[in-house]
Amino acid sequence: MNVQARLIRQLSATKPLMAWTFALGVCSSVSLLLQAHFMAIGIGILFLRVPQHTNLFTFDAGLAVTFLARSVFGAVSGWIAARFAANAKLDMRSRWMSQLFTLSSTKIERMQTGELITTAVTGVDNLESYLARYLPQSVEAVLVPAVLLLYILRLDWISAALLVVTAPLIVFFMILLGNGADSVAHKQWHVLEDLSSRFLEMIEGLMALKLFSRSADAKRVLFRIGDANRVATMKTLRVAFLSAFVLELFATLGTAAVALALGLRLIHAELAFTPALTVLLLTPEFFQPIRALGSEFHAGLNGLAAAESLFQLLDEPNEDVDARNIPGTMANGLPDIRFTDIRLRYPGEKEDSLCSLNLTIHPEERIAIVGPSGCGKTTLLRLLSGSLSPSAGIIEVGGKQVQTLASPAWRKLVTLLNQQPHIFSGSVRENLQMAVPVGEMVEDDQLHEALRKAGLNTWFRSLPNGLDTRIGDGGRTVSGGEAQRIAIARAWLRQSPLLLLDEPTAHLDPLTAADIETALEELMANRTVIVVTHDPGLASRMDRVIFLTSHGFSTGCETPLEYRFAD
Ligand SMILES: Nc1ncnc2c1ncn2[C@@H]1O[C@H](COP(=O)(O)OP(=O)(O)OP(=O)(O)O)[C@@H](O)[C@H]1O
């Protein structure tokens, strides 16, 4: 289905928007006819003394009423279009965002952050312009000329015939131009996405660029893509101006032809003054909506190019599954989790990252996963956290077979602490509250208790505004150890029965690492814990150590994963 048809079908706001535009367009066209009619009669009475049954005042009043009615219909139509477009924009942005949050982490990792930002921000805004301006204008460009043509046909068939000949010429040239313009607009959109990605990447890697003295190179690359964006934008504008020119040319020629034909017949007294003037007044109005569509051509192309990007993400299949077999609460703790012959291959990869994985995790067991770099430790945690689904094999939770753990019900039971927890730009309170489900109230006392348990008492006392102190990007800087402790405080608030730790002390100095491990000890009590670590000290404190061997996946799965148990 083409993008335009999909937009109309899938965005609930588009159908009522088109219906309203249609209804108001009919009302506006009728007022326009009456306005032209009254004006022609009024001019006839005033200047040529054309005899009429009614006096001039009646026509003046009629003219004023129709003029007012047209302005009101126009204003209401604009207001409705803006409202529906804003609703559609909200609808699209929220659907797009929820889809983004339901996609697996591997899919998100393959997407470019800059592209995603451009699509979510500029793309949705372009779509709003398309819906508020281009779509209503396309309805009017068909409706108004059709109504006017029927009326003109009643008054003077020759003028109607001239309009019927010129209008399709405009449509024909617009289609010709539109075909070329479509690819130009798409190209411009992709260049813009590329520019955003590179720019974001440069900002993120600013320190590394400075340290390697490569800032000038990055600037050159950015300048090159910026220039490509300028060229692409100019190309789309050129097409837009060309289309406007074609429209103006044919509209002017059409009006001139009608005026000439009317003038000649007036001179030869083959046509009465009032219908001739009415037709003459209506002819520019016949072309007006088509010309207005030409000036919205650019907005239309940009909107459609953006819509294609938006639909691309919306079309990604959602991997979350029906979670009937997954327990939704931790009332009785977490049951056994059993993996049998699990195999996992990342999309687009030639080799499995995990293969023949057989593992049973018992309730409240504490397991360390160790092994060489790249052997699949993090992949195993992703599988357990429900961010990845296995390519093959059997998963059982509490003896019940499930296809995957990728479900919201499962994720509620899991807390994942990784090497570098993300601190969001916001207050300490916001950063902690995000650990609990939306709508669930957390008292300040509970936040203080979580901070204390995470060993952040001293740090918290140093904050100028307590829980309202802004941290993260643009706020107070948080060290690696503090960030890890904030993550531990979040885990305390979350209270999930399965705790997954991915090298929680990897980037910390030995003293801080030891402190963090102490803070983790209390958290790990009475929970099922899986910790990925290269630290023999931490591993030895677990109930069981599992060694993942690299040949489990790197040499084509000849040997199953090997498990060794601690003493
Ligand atoms: N998103 C991905 N797409 C494709 N391949 C991936 C992806 N993530 C990881 N891999 C590959 O899967 C394999 C296992 O990676 P994983 O991160 O699980 O290893 P690891 O044992 O945790 O390594 P480390 O100890 O270095 O963190 C690696 O070969 C890696 O290149």
Automatic annotation (TrEMBL):
Gene3D superfamilies xrefs: ABC transporter type 1, transmembrane domain (1.20.1560.10), P-loop containing nucleotide triphosphate hydrolases (3.40.50.300)
Keywords recorded for this protein, A-Z: ATP-binding, Membrane, Nucleotide-binding, Transmembrane, Transmembrane helix
Protein encoded by which gene: cydD
Pfam families documented for this protein: ABC_membrane, ABC_tran
Localization, UniProt: Cell membrane
PANTHER family linked: ATP-BINDING CASSETTE SUB-FAMILY B (PTHR24221), COMPONENT LINKED WITH THE ASSEMBLY OF CYTOCHROME' TRANSPORT TRANSMEMBRANE ATP-BINDING PROTEIN ABC TRANSPORTER CYDD-RELATED (PTHR24221:SF590)
Boundaries of every ABC transporter domain copy: 337-566
Name of this protein: Thiol reductant ABC exporter subunit CydD
Keyword NADP: no
Extent of the signal sequence: none
Membrane topology: Multi-pass membrane protein
InterPro entries: AAA+_ATPase, ABC1_TM_dom, ABC1_TM_sf, ABC_transporter-like_ATP-bd, ABC_transporter-like_CS, ABC_transptr_CydD, P-loop_NTPase, Type_1_exporter
Main location: membrane
Residues covered by the ABC transmembrane type-1 domain: 19-302
Annotated source species: Alicyclobacillus fastidiosus
Chain segments annotated as transmembrane: 21-47, 67-86, 134-152, 158-177, 239-264
